[in-house]
Each structure stands twice: as C-alpha cells, then as structure tokens.
C-alpha cells in the first residue's frame, strides 16, 4: 500500500534508496520496480524533463541497482521488468543468461533474495492430546479472544489436525474486533496425522492495536477426530509482545483458554533483537 501510494512518489532519492535497500521488505521485486518507476516519472516532472525510459533511469541513478531483479521468476522478468525499457539491452541479455545459462555473467544487481520479515508464533498451550471420543469437528466454530500490549500484525493461525491418520481439511479462518470482520479466508490444509500444528494464512497481514480484544475463529470441516490443546495459558509473552487470552462467546465447539483449537497465532511484531 505504501509503495503504491501517491506519497511514495514525493520522497527524495536518499529515502527511495533506503527503502529499496531494506532487507526486511516483504513484497515482490516487480512491485518495487514499478514503485521506483512511478517515483522516477514524478521526479522527471519535478525536473521538468520528459519521462522517457532514459530520463527515468537517469534520475533513479544507483537506486535502480538496489532492486533485486535477478530474484524475480523468469516469467516475471520476461513479461515485466524486461518490457519496461529501463534496462540496457546488455543488462537484459545478461539477466536472461543468469536465469538460464550454466555459466552466469556477473551482474550489478543483487542476486540474493531479501530475508523479508520473520514471522513469530504465540503458542498458547503447553501440551496437546487426543482421545477418540473427546474432540470432533462438526462444522462448529472454535474461537478465542486475545489482546496484546504492542501493535502487531497477525498473518495466520496454527491449527491442530487429524488424530486418526492423514486427512484433508477445509477451514474458514476469521479475525474480528467488536463484532466486525477484519479478515477472513476460506482455505484447505493437509494434516499428516501427527500432533504438529498446520499453518493457515490470511491474504494480507492484519494490524492489531494494543489494549483491545480481538476474536480469532476457525471452522473446520474434515476428519472429525482431532488433536486438541490443553494446559492453556491466559498470558503468553513472545519477544517483546505479551498476549492475554480469554474465552469467546462465539466458540461453539469447546475451545477456550484452557484447551481446544487455535493453538497458535502467527504474527509480525517487535523481537528481542530490536532492543
């Protein structure tokens, strides 16, 4: 959203370079290239010159070489970056050789993908179990309320799967605040029959503000017999973030603070490394 905003085209070149150099960016390089080209077009207008590919390249300077074009897929490069007329013919040929040849030419562009943001996981149970007659999925809602003491971004949930051999599940995950749906996703996951959790994600991270309760919900449809969490904790600290959990009135399948489903919240947030 920031890259596509009008405000992005108004930053100075030093800021553009600091953004493009970031190791933690979590977006496609093609999006970065398009944002940089939008910035370059605006910079051409500020300098009162025509926004030709040559002039855009001129105003970008070395910022162009901070975009990790060789980490795109071959298809993204061929149908996107190579068509933008921003690269020289030799650069385009060299990058194609980088994708396809055994002997790769040296490039001015970084060839190592960005590390991106590292997600963290809040585990709210100390153990899990299964009993043949105790935990079933019948299309009912498993739900838990939580709050945090710092702003985070929730990206998905860890869920328990089948305790009766491998199985496929359909699941609807949902995140609400004050009854309003902030995000939902209908997806599937494969459970290998182990007590591992299986991660399911929203399409985009959801910003969670401190000191307000949110409701995490999951409705599973699939093999009924399942693992479930027990020895649940009402307070869990991960990195610099403390989670508080409480029962949700929307939970109709038995999930609560002490036990049940939704054992993990997957999120981006501050870590000890940032202290």
TrEMBL record:
Q: Where is the PHR domain?
A: 123-268
Gene3D superfamilies from the UniProt entry: 1.25.40.420, PHR domain (2.60.120.820)
Q: What is this protein called?
A: PHR domain-containing protein
State the organism of origin: Cryptolaemus montrouzieri
């Amino acid at each position: 959203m920031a890259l596509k905003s009008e405000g992005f085209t108004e930053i100075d070149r030093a800021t553009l370079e600091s953004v493009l150099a970031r190791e933690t960016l979590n977006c496609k390089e093609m999006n970065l290239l398009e944002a940089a080209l939008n910035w370059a077009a605006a910079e051409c207008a500020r300098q009162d010159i025509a926004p030709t590919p040559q002039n855009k390249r001129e105003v970008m300077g070395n910022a162009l070489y901070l975009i990790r074009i060789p980490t795109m897929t071959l298809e993204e490069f061929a149908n996107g970056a190579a068509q933008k007329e921003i690269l020289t013919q030799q650069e385009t040929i060299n990058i194609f050789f980088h994708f396809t040849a055994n002997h790769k030419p040296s490039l001015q562009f970084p060839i190592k993908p960005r590390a991106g943001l590292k997600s963290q996981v809040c585990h709210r149970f100390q153990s899990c179990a299964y009993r043949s007659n105790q935990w079933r999925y019948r299309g009912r809602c498993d739900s838990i309320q939580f709050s945090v003491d710092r702003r985070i971004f929730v990206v998905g949930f860890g869920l328990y799967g089948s305790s009766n051999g491998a199985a496929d599940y359909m699941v609807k995950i949902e995140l609400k605040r004050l009854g309003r749906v902030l995000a939902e996703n209908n997806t599937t996951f494969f459970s290998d029959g182990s007590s591992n959790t299986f991660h399911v994600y929203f399409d985009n991270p959801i910003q969670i503000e401190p000191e307000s309760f949110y409701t995490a919900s999951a409705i599973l449809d699939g093999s009924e017999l399942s693992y479930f969490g027990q020895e649940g904790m009402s307070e869990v600290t991960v990195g610099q973030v403390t989670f508080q959990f409480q029962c949700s009135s929307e939970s109709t399948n038995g999930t609560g603070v002490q036990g049940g489903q939704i054992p993990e919240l997957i999120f981006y947030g501050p870590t000890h490394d940032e202290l």
